[in-house]
Amino acid sequence: MQRTNKVIAEFFAQGYRVSGTYVVTKRPLADEIYDPTTNYLQLEEAYLSPIMDPAKISAYYTLTLFDKSNLDFVLTVDKKDGLRRDQSYGMGTYQLSICLTVPFFEITGHLYLINRNFNPRIYLSSDAGIFITLLDVTASTFNPDVSYQGGVALINRAHISFFGETAG
Predict the structure, then answer these.
(1) How far apart are the first and last CA of the chain?
(2) Is residue 120 a contact partner of residue 127, using CB atoms and an 8 Å limit?
(3) How far apart, in whole angstroms, are the C-alpha atoms of residue 41 and residue 10?
(4) Which strand (E) or helix (H) includes residue 88?
(5) What is the pLDDT of residues 40-52, one digit of tens each?
């Protein structure tokens, strides 16, 4: 019998948030998102809402499919749900406070690295994968009353406009 777990996560793309359930069968959510050989991600029990009005439910889907390349980022409440299998064993000893932007959001969080010397250009061009994992995340919108928090954010590297280390 195959064991399944469910992960509730928020998926942000093109001005919308989809809160849904990812059914974990063989691989964790983060492994599916980082996998360059698959383009789509399936969710169950998904609610669509505009990011600037998160209380407004625009649609409900019993089953929906995402094109991963269109995702700006994914947010999980629990850290363990947003880490790849290899990251669950360790992420590096050097913690950096990072601020970056994707469409509609400024995201702050912590990036863990093996090397103490950090260069944003080198990191984005050669060290980072398709997605970047930040921990203890706050995603703020243009409206100061609307922000989202989570244990982990998986951020689509191709959608990042500004990226840098913060002073604290």
Answers:
(1) 48
(2) no
(3) 13
(4) none
(5) 988 899 999 999 9
Structure tokens at 83: 């880490």
Cα 168 to Cα 162: distance, rounded to the nearest angstrom: 17
pLDDT on residue 58:
93
> What does pTM read for this prediction?
0.88
How far are the Cα atoms of 100, 116, 118, 123 from residue 95, in angstroms, in the given order? 16, 9, 10, 14
Please determine, looking at this structure, whether the domain spanning 81-165 carries the CATH number 2.40.10.10. no
DSSP bridge pairs for 106: 101, 140
Regions of the chain short of the pLDDT cut 70: 1-4, 82-92, 127-128, 168
According to DSSP, residue 31 is labeled H
In this structure, whether the domain defined by 5-79 belongs to CATH 2.30.30.100 is answered with yes
Residue ranges of the domains in the chain?
Answer: 5-79, 81-165
Residue 60 contacts residue 43 (beta carbons within 8 Å): no
Q: Taking the CA atoms of 23, 61, 69 and 160 in sequence, report the sign of the dihedral they define.
A: negative
Residue 3 is predicted with a pLDDT of: 47
81-165 shares the fold of 5-79:
yes
pLDDT in the model for residue 72: 96
Quickly tell me which residue has 């995702």 as its tokens: 71
Q: How many Å is the Cα radius of gyration of the chain? A: 16
